[in-house]
Amino acid sequence: MFSNDRARRALWSLAFAGVMPSGSLAAEHPDVARSVETSATAELDHAPPSLTVAVRRAWLRSPAVQAADAKLAAADARALAATRPLYNPELEITAQNADVNTRSIGVSQTIDWSGKRRARSGAAAAEMRAGQAEREQVRQRVALQWLSGFSAYRAACEQVALGARRVTLLAQFAALAQRRLAAGDIPPLEGDLAELALQEAHAEQAGLLADQAKARQSLSAVGDDDAKSLPELPQALPPAAAIPLAAASVEALPALRQAAAEVEAADARIVVAERDRRADPTISLTGGRVTDGPIDDKVVGINLRIPLFLRNDYSAEVTAARAGADEAAATLHDRHRQAVAEAEQAGTSYNALREAWQRWQHSRASNADERATLLQRLWEAGELSTSDYLVQLKQSNDTELAASRLRARAWQAFADWLGASGELDRWLGLDGIAQ
Q1: Could you tell me which residues are beta bridge partners of residue 109?
Q2: Which of 105, 229, 335, 343 would you call most buried, defined as having the most Cβ atoms within 10 angstroms of its Cβ?
Q3: Helix segments in 85-235, DSSP class H
Q4: How far does Cα 309 stand from its chain's mean position?
Q5: What residues form DSSP beta bridges with 323?
Q6: pLDDT tens across 91-129, in order?
Q7: Contact 420, 346 (CB under 8 A)
Q8: What's the alpha-carbon Rg for the chain, to the nearest Å?
Q9: In this structure, which CATH number among 3.30.360.10, 1.10.940.10, 1.20.1600.10, 3.90.1750.10 belongs to the domain 54-86+117-277+319-428?
Q10: What does the domain layout of the chain look like in residue ranges?
Q11: Phi, psi (degrees; rounded to nearest 5) at 287
């Protein structure tokens, strides 16, 4: 009978043989060998078309994106309204019957002498640019939530499949153990161990199914409720994140572009407040007829009205606008610092998880099927006790589940990196395409 060390060496020897293609296979089928090497080292520089289509479908179904679109449409309408003349002409008709009868008609027009329309147009244009950046933020947030939920759901589905395979293996093992117990080949305690392991697997499978349902609910909350149309989660991971993020990439982030546009809008509102302190004159032109007994005269009048800002000079509005500009500038600086820190953290996290996943892919630990087969052969040959078999099989299954969770975490970290680096549209292949 083999010792546990000999069994373990045999296990790793067979697992190694299952991971690495044999020399005869590589010699006889070089295309197969190249495909194995390519699949292990390939990097997903761009999203598969199925992922891009799924993200765009999530945008179409997302109420948050629809609200952002409506908000941008309102900002666009306000920007158009700000370009229109500030004052409309006024028509005045006067009729008076007294000792002197008067009939007159006049037109008055307030003149935008201080350039209020130009100032308000500039502020509205900056607010529209801020709205565009805010909509991009919303679309990015929805896309990243979908990618994170999608990777979690696909990982949960994979873990359910792994758990189902574990239940099948242990059910077969329990049945075989009962037959060997009936034949007197193993003691009753080992038969009980096999049955306990099967019941534990059923309990853990129920937990995995609950996790899958929770992941599905999280994905549905983003706006994707069609599980059958979901693409597969790619095995290959995207390239490593570039750290630190280039300054130009930081400035191009939607959050920073929104903050910069809000600074421009706040500065423009100072100009608006200052222009509102300047009085705009109103000019009136009146023509009519005055009748006094036998005298009937035509009259023409020109009036000029200028408001006097004596009781309220509107200086408080200027002070408030300047304080708002200071707030916007501080917010921009704060968001810039946060963006740099978030990009570095997201890139570092993704690179660490990516490296761990690549180590797993290239390790001998990734061949679980061969390990399970060898373990059962050793147990059937009496070279492993039931307890040793169950311990090693559980370790193998737990490692597989951990690897599945690792891949999901790597994809979720990559989604965080896309958001922190502003690379989402480029990776999805949507840069330069009208949305």
Answers
A1: 283
A2: 343
A3: 116-182, 188-222
A4: 51
A5: none
A6: 999 888 877 888 889 999 999 988 899 999 999 999 999
A7: yes
A8: 37
A9: 1.20.1600.10
A10: 54-86+117-277+319-428
A11: -135, 145
